[in-house]
Amino acid sequence: MIDHTKVGSPAANWERTWTTRDTMLYAVSVGAGAHDPTDELRFTTDNTSGITQQVLPTFVTVMAAGEAATQNPLTVLGDIAVTSIVHGGQRITLHNDIPPAGSVVSRGSIAAIYDKGRHAAIVLASTITDADDGTPYADIETTMILTGEGGFGGNPGPKASWSVPDREPDEIVTDHTRPEQALLYRLNSDRNPLHSDPAFAAFMGRTRPTLHGLCTYGYAGRAVLATVAESDPGRFGSFFARFAAPVEPGDELHTLIWRTENGALFQTKVGDTVVLDHGEFRLR
Ligand SMILES: CCCCCCC[C@@H](O)CC(=O)SCCNC(=O)CCNC(=O)[C@H](O)C(C)(C)COP(=O)(O)OP(=O)(O)OC[C@H]1O[C@@H](n2cnc3c(N)ncnc32)[C@H](O)[C@@H]1OP(=O)(O)O
């Protein structure tokens, strides 16, 4: 049973240092260069003539997550089994470009605890600032679903108002994930065995180890940034998606994008199944 009185408690406070190797690895782990290795070299290399290395804005989720598997940010709520946690949703709001290498401080707290019936939804809010000069990089809102922990008579939270636009998407971007995609993505930091260990995945009711939600999120972030902002990280404002269904390594992702006045709405599908829902991108 979780302690529902912990709203406002500090959580997910840590420092993280990264190098150009980390930011290039991240780009490759969310499919940069997979269609054509000479595309997106600004994200995947640091020594290509005439190209200055840039960082995919969704890398900020790696900066924010710390070592997620070993530093469970929800321990403040009690003895939470890691097997009951799935990632429910992620919002990032960027204030400045992420440098290819650096060091940040993440300061977070439990912003809300919602009773979703069968499940509890925990919202963690964090700010990410430069460890040396305090430059603000991002505000992060992470929703974790604690399966089977709902029904405690708490606040159900706001009703989502998102709906699929009543027209064909302006663009559909297709990406092929690889069979070893989760093995590659976990090298960014999140070594949760849900994404690698068949026995652990089976214990959580999954037929195979599934992909990190944030890996699918990174694919969608690249697709939307390329479509709406010519892959310019400087135009990336905020990005939200809800993790609606598991993705398996090897799945083909189709990101449906509807342009809006200040960004885009999107969904990502595997076949007919929506895996990322309520997607919203805003330009900076
Ligand atoms: C600091 C950072 C640390 C980061 C650590 C990251 C750890 C990672 O290693 C973990 C992962 O990556 S897990 C992989 C990614 N996530 C997933 O695969 C989850 C996919 N989603 C599901 O399985 C279901 O939607 C499921 C199970 C979520 C819900 O499905 P159902 O049980 O069918 O529930 P449903 O009937 O659809 O909804 C019931 C009520 O809950 C609300 N809800 C559902 N999904 C939500 C979501 N994602 N976010 C918020 N609320 C959500 C529904 O709206 C509904 O409530 P209401 O009636 O009020 O609308």
Automatic annotation (TrEMBL):
Q: Which ranges form a coiled coil?
A: none
Tell me the organism: Gordonia pseudamarae
**What InterPro entries does the record point to?**
HotDog_dom_sf, MaoC-like_dom, MFE-2_N
Q: What is this protein called?
A: Enoyl-CoA hydratase
Signal sequence bounds: none
User: SUPFAM superfamilies of this UniProt entry?
Assistant: Thioesterase/thiol ester dehydrase-isomerase (SSF54637)
Q: Tell me which residues make up the MaoC-like domain.
A: 164-274
Q: Name the Gene3D superfamilies on file.
A: Hotdog Thioesterase
Output the Pfam families linked to this UniProt entry: MaoC_dehydratas, MFE-2_hydrat-2_N
The family classification in the record reads: Belongs to the enoyl-CoA hydratase/isomerase family.
Every copy of the Peroxisomal multifunctional enzyme type 2-like N-terminal domain together lies at: 18-148
